[in-house]
Amino acid sequence: MNPDVRSLAYFIVHTVATCERCDQPTGLVGVGIAAGHECYIDDEWVRMAAGVWLFHVEWLLPAVADTLQDLAPQFRLGSRGDGPAECWLNHCQQCNAPQDDYWLYCEPGGAFLPDGGWTDDRFDIIQVDAPFSASASGFAEATGALASTGSAG
Ligand SMILES: [Zn+2]
Q1: Residue 119: which domain range?
Q2: What is the pLDDT along the chain (153 residues), one digit of tens a residue?
């Protein structure tokens, strides 16, 4: 799998939401990159002007995957919904059900599509100053949530 997005640093967001299957609270993590990250488009790396949260992530740089799994072992490869056959998904800490990225990131009121914005204290966002690359097909706007980390090139 060739990476199609890269950055010099990345962000991990942690929150707690209700499992779509068992209705119990479960921890969720997501990964984002600031404005200035690069996407591989038409055979070249292009600098992007907006920060994004990534979803439908099929491949993660192993060091990034290790960091995420240290924080949230329930974030691992799985299959769910309309996403790729296998991608990195949150799994419920209570019943182990994979949580569909579409509902977390794209549906109003979803855990990672907050009505009240990203300043809400239910989000814990940390910056990791380490190289990031991934292959992802989902990009969710992260307005105001991710401070710029400068150029990735
Ligand atoms: Zn559950």
Answers
A1: 5-141
A2: 789 999 999 999 999 999 999 999 999 999 999 999 999 999 999 999 999 999 999 999 999 999 999 999 999 999 887 767 899 999 999 999 999 999 999 998 899 988 877 877 889 999 999 999 999 999 998 877 786 654 444
Ligand 1 center to 143 CA (angstroms): 29
CA of 98 to the centre of ligand 1 (A): 8
Q: Please indicate, yes or no, if residue 126 is contained in any of the structural domains.
A: yes
Give the count of domains, the chain: 1
Report how far residue 114's alpha carbon sits from residue 108's, in angstroms, rounded to the nearest whole number: 7
Q: Which residues contact 19 (CB under 8 A, 6 or more apart)?
A: 25, 26, 92, 94, 95, 97, 99
